[in-house]
Amino acid sequence: MSFPPDRNSSGDDDGSGWREPEHLGGDGSEDEPNVADRRRQPRDDQPADRDAWQPPGWELPAAGPRGPEGAEGSGQGPGRGSGEGPGEAPPPPMTAEPTLARGGLFGSPRRPRDPEMARAFTYEGDLVGVQGWALQNGWTVSDGSAPQDAVLRELVTSAPVRASKDHRPASVLRGRAGNLELVAFDVVYASGRYLVAEYAVTAAPVLGAVPGFRLSPARFWKHRTGGLLPIASGNELFDTRWLLLAAEDTPQIHRLVGDATVQALLLGTDDGDEFWSAAGHVAAIRPDGHRPQLLEHHARLLSAIVAALSAGYGVDPVV
Length: 319
Prior knowledge:
The protein is of the alpha+beta class.
């Protein structure tokens, strides 16, 4: 096996006797420059000045004296960052925009509240719906803070729904429907800065002793039913869909649950209302805000229920 000759085989340990091979352009003479020497010199087509090959605009213009408008330049032409061209007027001075206070989640800007937006989402009742209907029919409208509205809080507390201490009556309407004096209102609660109407209540004040009862759809979950007795009507279809609970098993209660008009009206509904007696009223409640159709619906049902309770038992509706 043969090996390439050692470059120092001539005995020159310092390598001074090495010459560039002929196939690389050298003939081995000492007059031929070394490749390493040529690399130290610039190429023939490259100027010695390094800045001469830089593209136009590579270097920014020299900074001149600051002009009256705050732009840099000597006034003879556009200065650095002035943004002005020849013959162009200087841009108007920038005005500081008001900064918004930081707040909210992750320091997002806290924008000023729009009073019109706040007014649009403030609960004021259905001005063009049930309140308009009430005013056209001679009913009165209040906000629930009048002295005569204090009893309405007792109705909210005794209602067969899960009402909290934050629920209160609002948008109270009073008027006559047939032979009954009725009071209708929304049960609202505060959600942030707004009021939400969760239930609609219609109640008829009555004179005389009214037995405590609750008449609810059988599919509804019952709340606070301790001490109440279930009363059957004898109508299998009615008992399948509706359940009457009473504090006492009296003939008056049996007359109510067995009344043919009451049964027919309730069987013709969607089983979405509940009825109860408290604070001298017989009331109906539904998870909804009041509207004219709902008020008329409650008025029909309450008229039949009050008539069944008052027939021959000394209970008279307020007329």
